Amino acid sequence: MKHLKPTRSDLPFYGSISLIGGAYVALLTLLVLACASFLTWETFTETLQSPAILQSLKLTFLTCTASSILALFVSVPLSYSLSRFRFRGRSVIDTLLDIPIVLPPIVVGLSLLILFNSLPSSENSLERLLNGQGTAVTFHVPAIILAQFTIITAFATRSLKVTFDQLPERTEHIALTLGCNRFQAFWKICLPQAQPGILAAGLLAWARALGEFGPILIFAGATRGKTEVLSTSIFLEINTGNLPGAAAISLVLILLSLSTISLLRFLGSRTSNN
Amino acid sequence: MKHLKPTRSDLPFYGSISLIGGAYVALLTLLVLACASFLTWETFTETLQSPAILQSLKLTFLTCTASSILALFVSVPLSYSLSRFRFRGRSVIDTLLDIPIVLPPIVVGLSLLILFNSLPSSENSLERLLNGQGTAVTFHVPAIILAQFTIITAFATRSLKVTFDQLPERTEHIALTLGCNRFQAFWKICLPQAQPGILAAGLLAWARALGEFGPILIFAGATRGKTEVLSTSIFLEINTGNLPGAAAISLVLILLSLSTISLLRFLGSRTSNN
Amino acid sequence: LWALWPSLESSQNKPSLTVYCAASLRSPMTEIAERFEAEHDITIRLVFNGSGALLSQLQLSGGDLYLPATADYLDQASHLITATHPTSSMTAVLVLRGEEHNILALDDLKREDIRLSFAVENAAIGKFTRQVLHDSEDWAAIEKNITVIKPTVNNTVEDVSLGAVDATIAWDAVALQNKELKIIPLPLFANKPQTTSIAILKSSTQVKLARQFVSYLTEEESSKQTFRKYGFGSVAAD
Amino acid sequence: MLSIESISIESGQFKLKDISFTVESGTCTSLMGPSGSGKTTIMEAICGLRKITSGTILLNNQDITHLRPSERKLSIVPQDNALFPHLTVREHLAFGPSIQKWNQSEIDQRINHLAEGMSISHLLDRYPSNLSGGEAKRVALGRALATRPALLCLDEALTGLDDDTHDEILSLLKDSIQNEGITALHITHSMKEATQLSDKVIKLGDLQPNQAP
Amino acid sequence: MLSIESISIESGQFKLKDISFTVESGTCTSLMGPSGSGKTTIMEAICGLRKITSGTILLNNQDITHLRPSERKLSIVPQDNALFPHLTVREHLAFGPSIQKWNQSEIDQRINHLAEGMSISHLLDRYPSNLSGGEAKRVALGRALATRPALLCLDEALTGLDDDTHDEILSLLKDSIQNEGITALHITHSMKEATQLSDKVIKLGDLQPNQAP
Ligand SMILES: Nc1ncnc2c1ncn2[C@@H]1O[C@H](COP(=O)(O)OP(=O)(O)OP(=O)(O)O)[C@@H](O)[C@H]1O
Ligand SMILES: Nc1ncnc2c1ncn2[C@@H]1O[C@H](COP(=O)(O)OP(=O)(O)OP(=O)(O)O)[C@@H](O)[C@H]1O
Ligand code: MOO
Ligand SMILES: [Mg+2]
Ligand SMILES: [Mg+2]
């Protein structure tokens, strides 16, 4: 349809669509500008050269990638079964999935801290058990990943359920007649058709993980060089009244993450546009 | 297919799906229990009877509902045009949409504060202009709604774009031959088919708005009885060391929001299952 | 939806004060502000956050009063404020969960098996305790036991109360909010109470009203009582 | 009268060049040709659903080449039906008329008339997902006929029907075309059907001397 | 041999009761009947895609009533094709054989043989969205034939094809059925096609004395 010029009766439609959408996009642009208005060139270059920031940048990308891969690994089967199977407790599970979205992230962090350290008692806790095995979660890198994972899996599952709900089951059924078992029908027929949706969910999860800081501060701390990620660095800068520093790290975060996401989205659209 | 018993070759598939999904659901349940372990019956009933909490409950539901309606109003046309039209700057807009997801919410709040109060200068700011007109945003209820709206619109748009991408354009084209202009084809053909996706996006936005507190603390403050919403109450309780209080409010939040969401989802599935 | 606007308009007619208040002072300040509002028919807008985050906020949006948890932040904000008035004080103490680790004094924190939570250097408590412990040459031995660094004093107290660490050094007022915690006074800090002061901001458009509230806060007996009730020490009047 | 004047169409690798033909008002022309020869492509181009690289389309002496589909006063029964999943059969039949703001009693009358003609009266409250193949085809036909279009495009609109239904609908179509002066273009693979319904049969191979294989 | 023994099917409001018939191995039986009479419903039930409330289905003396579709050794050409949007034509033809773990050279041979028989060799690298109606039908046919199923279910599998292609494919199907001993069930509306391909024609109305209108 893209070849026909819009007629007069379509103009109000295009006009109001662009106006509404444009207003929000303008708001976003203004927000970035507002954030950048506090930036000075020196703080920006300083930030880029600070070894602590570079270290936390590395940790940020590593943990976010790990947690979003884990999140996809869980949310793909979870959303698939919520979409395709009718089993006892299905709607309860569907409802439980809203908890990490509804709860302030800080409560999620606190709950994780309680779960690992004071249940059933602080002498008998999961963390003590793990420490006995020579590992540790609380206040270490695994805590970052677990905190991110807990929250983003719920977002990824919600997003993926929309995808699977909209994919017709019919092609899977035909695959069954051709000799597939349920796993093969899922793997060879449903999953490839869901690929754009899975990419979108994965990117959403990754992006959401980047912005997470509440639960990380509580469950992993913000020990420099050990558990400090970019979002917690930003929080600490704001908490010391250092706005230029916070603006600089925020812009680094925006630039790096948006370019990564655009690149992945571009690659994804190339492979699915066969 | 639900009438046929799974054969042996399908058991590993069902097994591993339930295992993976079940592990996450168990984690969520444990989190709620961990949170509840700090609860005493007295704090819970006290919380339910406290006029300040009831007031903030009311404000929470009102602002979240307002902001998610606004968010749908913006994200439906925005995601529709991103999905259907190829225009200049489309991929830039698509990328900008990730900003509110990537940025730590607290930075969003700070940017809003800067935008309204210190651009171009604090004497000449938007807020001053509004004050001159007899209204105010910063530190008032509209700031809560604006902070929530800024963030959840991005989530709703991402979720809706998946929906529109998966809806075939063909039926809209046929509607055009029957005399529809683009708006009518959108309104009468595309939108009703997208209804489950719109409901899902709206609920996601609403849930996400409930959990928001970083930008609200910064842009709207948390004055008791005026701009205190449940999520900020929880943050403040935690910050004054009152964990039982925080747990009580969190559980109130979970109970009320999950039942609201389940109800809406149930009503939505009834209307679309014609 | 429009139900949300009237509350805004009614508050427009009254004079109002914006007070940036450290989250740890929330309980006493909410009480006192509500009393003051009732007595004087004005609106007090309390903006809570960490002391540092408040500093960021007030740089951007102006306001009338700033009450950070410790005086340090007032030094940082010196170019934004006119006068400061002490309201209450806090003392650093050793905070434990129970008897389990047999910690009785500062030296016990240097033992092998102890886990500590400490606030970041930028937080008031973090800066203060590091300074004092450096001077007394205890810092090196204690530092090696620090398991986690948290952004605010509240977070470190939380860690102790949840059993994630064994001890922390925190403000008595903050620790006292949690009844289950055990508090041990430390001789090293006992004679160094830190004053919490409220400052009038240069950006204030209602200086007179602000002064009125400050004197209510610092001089009225009911206010002092409220501070004491929540574990804050009193200060000698200027 | 529909007249196609040397239109060329490109869709992906597939190209059609220099297609010309005319269809008189009140008559039907059948378009035949091997599978994949471009019949559907031509029909969708006439409806404005595919891009035309050159040439002109005139309908009743009006140049519709660059009009939007909604302004061409035509309707199509697509090969794949493309029913609206969220509308009942009744709403399908009412769709065109109500977009064109007919008044309610006219619409109701039209629905009843078409539903009887298509033998789908018992299906009026069904949704497309609950229809059989032939039932869906008839709904698509009814939807297209409802607005009394100037041009009716039938893309294998009569396949998948049993003989009785086929004959009934064929005669209903014939009547509509003659009585309402509709111009009809009809794609079919059945020579018998073509000769029954239409006054002229065009073989696609004949139109296009230099078609790519 | 396929034998259907008094099966009953319910799908929504539509009910079929007490259907029985048999099809000999190496032969084809055509199922005819008015549109909406339940032909597709019966066929999908045989394939295990719809619930049977009572009755038994035997294929080559094995009771397949409660087997999963994958264990029934049959394949179907659905009325709506239901091609896999993410696979090329070649991958459609290879799908069944590679699931059944044929070795690669056998698969390649089978693909070439089928593609030639269906005249779709030039389409092997296309995706379904770029196929015409008749081309898609032939791909669905090829996909179903590929695994040499014991039972072949053809739901209007030869509609939408031009006469030449139709005849070619008809004879290919006839050969396969006879030579490979396939049992075939065929739904069509064309009596001519039915008599050409099959040894027996079943009218759905005759099977079911007490059908709801
Ligand atoms: N989207 C597309 N991209 C590329 N090629 C296409 C596309 N759609 C159709 N084709 C090709 O264009 C040719 C014409 O297709 P068209 O659907 O017009 O055929 P047709 O004459 O209607 O055939 P049939 O009788 O099988 O329906 C076919 O060779 C088809 O493979
Ligand atoms: N999902 C469904 N729910 C309710 N009724 C259905 C459903 N699917 C089909 N039907 C009805 O069942 C009947 C049989 O449908 P079926 O598709 O088997 O017909 P058919 O004989 O194949 O017809 P056709 O020749 O038109 O394809 C029809 O009346 C149809 O309306
Ligand atoms: O108010 Mo603070 O940041 O806990 O010192
Ligand atoms: Mg065609
Ligand atoms: Mg059928």
TrEMBL record, chains A, B:
The complex is composed of two ATP-binding proteins (CysA), two transmembrane proteins (CysT and CysW) and a solute-binding protein (CysP). Residues 57-264 form the ABC transmembrane type-1 domain. PANTHER family: SULFATE TRANSPORT SYSTEM PERMEASE PROTEIN, SULFATE TRANSPORT SYSTEM PERMEASE PROTEIN CYST. Its main location: membrane. It comes from Rubritalea squalenifaciens DSM 18772. Belongs to the binding-protein-dependent transport system permease family. It comes from the Bacteria. This is Molybdate transport system permease protein.
Automatic annotation (TrEMBL), chains D, E:
It comes from the Bacteria. GO terms for molecular function: ATP binding; ATP hydrolysis activity. Transmembrane segments: none annotated. Residues 1-212 form the ABC transporter domain. It holds the Pfam family ABC_tran. InterPro entries: AAA+_ATPase (IPR003593), ABC_SmlMolc_Importer (IPR050093), ABC_transporter-like_ATP-bd (IPR003439), ABC_transporter-like_CS (IPR017871), P-loop_NTPase (IPR027417). Signal peptide: none annotated. Keywords: ATP-binding, Nucleotide-binding, Transport. PANTHER family: SPERMIDINE/PUTRESCINE IMPORT ATP-BINDING PROTEIN POTA, SPERMIDINE_PUTRESCINE IMPORT ATP-BINDING PROTEIN POTA. This is ABC transporter. It comes from Rubritalea squalenifaciens DSM 18772.
